[in-house]
Amino acid sequence: MNASRVIDRLEDPWEMMIYRAIVQAAREGRECPTCDDLCDLIGSASVTSSVQIIQRLERKNMIKVRRYQRSRQVYVHALDAWTKEPANKSEPWREQAVTLSALKAERPDEAIEMQIEADRRGVSLAQYLRTCVWAGRAAMERVGL
């Protein structure tokens, strides 16, 4: 099915506008428009609007999205084409977070020890984990990893 026929199936004018913009970016080999660009396009002041529309297009199986921290890459099924890969492909910050519950699930005894050590030092668990990450990185560099 081509992209024009897919657009004809959309009833929401904002969905049509955003889908067209993504299709055009994929056709031209450009990065996916940002949320701000898409909000400007549809005349919305809320970034949430463009995010929700992209999620709806994804649920309708019209697009597939690879999400990054400050960008996205979108596959348009009707074109069998991706938008250009973004320069910054950092993981979304929510996926970078390490939580005590995740640590407890993987290694319960060590998670408790980490929380106790953080409390002993008078810092949050997040601060203690950051310290551990940097110390681990420095140790890895010393041994050539």
The count of strands amounts to 3
Shape designation: elongated
Overall SS class: mainly alpha
How many domains?
2
Summarize the topology.
Blueprint (H helix, E strand, L loop, with lengths): L2 H7 L3 H16 L6 H8 L4 H13 L3 E5 L4 E5 L4 E2 L10 H4 L3 H7 L1 H14 L3 H18 L3
Antiparallel strand pairs: 1-2, 2-3
Helix pairs in contact: 2-4, 3-4, 6-7, 7-8
Q: Can you characterise this structure?
A:
The protein is mostly helical and 145 residues long. The longest helix is centred in the last third of the chain and has 18 residues, at 125-142. Helix content is 60%, strand content 8%. The protein has helices spanning 3-9, 13-28, 35-42, 47-59, 93-96, 100-106, 108-121, 125-142, and strands at 63-67, 72-76, 81-82. It has two domains: 3-82, Orthogonal Bundle (Arc Repressor Mutant, subunit A), CATH 1.10.10; 97-142.
Which descriptors would you attach to this protein?
145 residues, mainly alpha, Arc Repressor Mutant, subunit A, 8 helices, elongated
State the gist of this model.
With 145 residues, this protein is mostly helical. It has 8 helices and 3 strands, in the order H-H-H-H-E-E-E-H-H-H-H. It has a 3-stranded antiparallel β-sheet.
